[in-house]
Amino acid sequence: MKIIEYKSLLSEYNINELSSEQCKLIKLAEKSSLKAYAPYSNFFVGAAIKLSNGKMVTGNNQENSAFPSGLCAERVALFYTGANYPNEKIEKIAIFAKASFNFNQIIMPCGNCRQALIEYEHKQNQNIELILKDQKNNILISKSIANILPFAFKCDELKKI
Predict the structure, then answer these.
(1) Domain holding 26: CATH number?
(2) 60-106 per-position pLDDT tens digit
(3) Would strands 129-133 and 90-99 be described as parallel, antiparallel, or unpaired?
(4) pTM confidence score
């Protein structure tokens, strides 16, 4: 037997340590969370993406009473980006979560969003910086989506079928 250990590398920051671009992206994610449709969970998430052409795209979670029919903020922003800017690389994504209830942690993207994000990272052959912020101004940054999805599903052979 062989044990494989994988460590995720994220950095903790305060708002004063971020670049103006990172701050702008976070503000856009926060603003986008205000437009989220979350009547069931009261959990409001905003995402903002910075593209290689300098454009910034936002998204927010959209719930539905048939729960699987909703979509997370990350994928709303990601899929809008893919549909409207298919040739631009995604450089950064900022995610902000707030709720009508107290939670004491930075919220990570769900498994579906991690897989969608890593697909774009693989597709563009370039890391996507992930910036996470909570209501208490705690910030975590990962230089790559691979840090939060170490054993991502990837099968290049599927593209040959």
Answers:
(1) 3.40.140.10
(2) 999 999 988 999 999 999 999 999 999 999 999 999 999 988 888 89
(3) parallel
(4) 0.92
Q: Does a structural domain hold residue 65? A: yes
Whether 158 maps to a domain, the answer reads: no
Q: Tell whether 49 is covered by a domain.
A: yes
Residues in Cβ contact with 107 at an 8 Å cutoff, skipping those fewer than 6 apart? 45, 95, 97, 132, 134
Q: How many CA atoms lie within 13 A of 134 on its CB side?
A: 15
Token digits for 36?
């989220």
Catalytic residues: 74
Q: What is the secondary structure of 3-60 as a DSSP string?
A: --------EEE-GGGS-HHHHHHHHHHHHHHTT-B-TTT-EEEEEEEEETTS-EEEEE
Is the distance from CB of 75 to CB of 59 less than 8 angstroms?
Answer: yes
Question: Tokens 């709303």 label which residue?
Answer: 76
Determine the Cα–Cα distance for residues 45 and 16; give it in Å rounded to an integer: 23
